[in-house]
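Long-time lurker, first post. I've been practising inverse folding by hand and with some scripts of my own, and I keep getting stuck on stretches where the structure tokens seem ambiguous. Below is the full token string for one chain I'm working on. Before anyone asks, I'm not after the true native sequence, just a reasonable design that respects the backbone. If someone could post their per-position residues I'd love to compare against what I wrote down in my notebook.
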């Protein structure tokens, strides 16, 4: 039977699944009370945020998506050979599933594809379009937060552990402790004979990095400002975005791009019943994007029970896609 119905989360059909507003509000307020104000990155991806992210991926200065797509196009055959036939492919943070198609085109009889996304609109659109493009493939979309325990569907007939596909160097957006927790969780889920195919952005000239996240078309900036607009729209906040500027820099000590919205003046805003004050120059951290050396990534993998078995890079050595299995 072709299973194209949307998978249910806690018995709630996906179309009715909405992220818990109260829980998200609590996370927002907790983040804004910290010394370094911070908003949960998942807030970046509402319907508009997902569209804005797609605009970033085609910005000329944003080398990541283009470079990873090149690697996928040139090495997907070798990746598929590593992965083997009849595998269940699980993709956390699947977005438009664009890179996945290249992989699916090369895999031998994949058993099923499970995209896991926080944005129901992006998930729904990708699942529909995959169902049309791959009528023989079982697609089980799951709308969930990949930092939490995910109820994955039971899939009959899978002979080996699943393979997680985690492109986009999304691992770099996590805090260091989240990277470890996430990879350990994936390691448990794939078992001893599953795998992880992961996109990892590499340390490089900081000017190239800063340009990618502060692009000339201001795609990144618009994406970050959507956070403030979302607080206004969904949490009755009254923030004036003109009183903030987008500020990006590479932090060499931590090997990461940091994206901030910096308050240009001393100001106060209300979010629901709480008053949030900003000093002039104080910022909200919107996102990190950690970059890795190969050695550092292999150390992280080992700490989480994985060994790196193969690495594919572009000619400039800017980006990598790596295949990991249990140590
Ligand atoms: C950097 S994008 C990568 C998209 C796609 N995998 C790619 O490589 O182009 C991150 C994706 O993860 C999703 N996402 C962000 N936070 C999430 C969370 N906490 N749980 C599930 N998905 C999340 C976003 O909606 C977005 O589609």
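-- Answer (accepted) --
I ran through it position by position. Result:
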């Amino acid at each position: 039977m072709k299973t194209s119905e949307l998978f249910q989360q806690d018995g709630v059909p996906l179309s009715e699944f909405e992220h818990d507003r109260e829980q998200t509000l609590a996370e927002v307020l907790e983040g804004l009370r910290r010394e370094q104000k911070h908003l949960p990155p998942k807030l970046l991806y509402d319907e508009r945020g997902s569209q804005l992210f797609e605009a970033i991926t085609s910005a000329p200065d944003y080398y990541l998506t283009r470079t990873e797509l090149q690697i996928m196009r040139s090495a997907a055959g070798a990746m598929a050979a590593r992965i083997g036939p009849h595998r269940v492919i699980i993709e956390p943070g699947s977005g438009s599933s664009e890179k996945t198609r290249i992989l699916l085109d090369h895999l031998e009889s994949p058993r099923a594809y499970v995209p896991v996304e926080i944005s129901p609109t992006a998930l729904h659109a990708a699942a529909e379009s995959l169902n049309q493009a791959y009528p023989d493939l079982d697609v089980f979309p799951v709308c969930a937060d990949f930092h939490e325990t995910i109820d994955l569907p039971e899939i009959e007939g899978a002979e080996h552990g699943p393979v997680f596909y985690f492109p986009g160097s999304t691992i770099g957006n996590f805090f260091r402790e989240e990277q470890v927790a996430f990879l350990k969780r994936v390691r448990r889920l794939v078992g001893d004979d599953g795998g992880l195919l992961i996109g990892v952005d590499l340390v490089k000239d900081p000017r190239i990095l800063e340009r990618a996240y502060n692009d000339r078309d201001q795609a990144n900036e618009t994406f970050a400002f959507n956070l403030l607009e979302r607080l206004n729209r969904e949490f009755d906040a009254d923030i004036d975005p003109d009183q903030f500027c987008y500020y990006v820099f590479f932090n060499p000590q931590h090997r990461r791009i940091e994206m901030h919205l910096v308050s240009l003046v001393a100001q106060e805003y209300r979010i629901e019943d709480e008053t949030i004050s900003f000093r002039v120059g104080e910022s909200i951290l919107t996102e990190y994007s950690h970059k890795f050396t190969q050695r550092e990534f292999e150390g992280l993998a080992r700490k989480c029970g994985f060994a790196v078995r193969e690495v594919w890079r572009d000619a400039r050595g800017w980006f990598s896609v790596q295949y990991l299995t249990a140590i």
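A couple of notes from the structure itself: DSSP finds nine helices and 13 strands in the chain. Residues 63-83 form the longest helix (21 residues). Happy to go over any region you disagree with.
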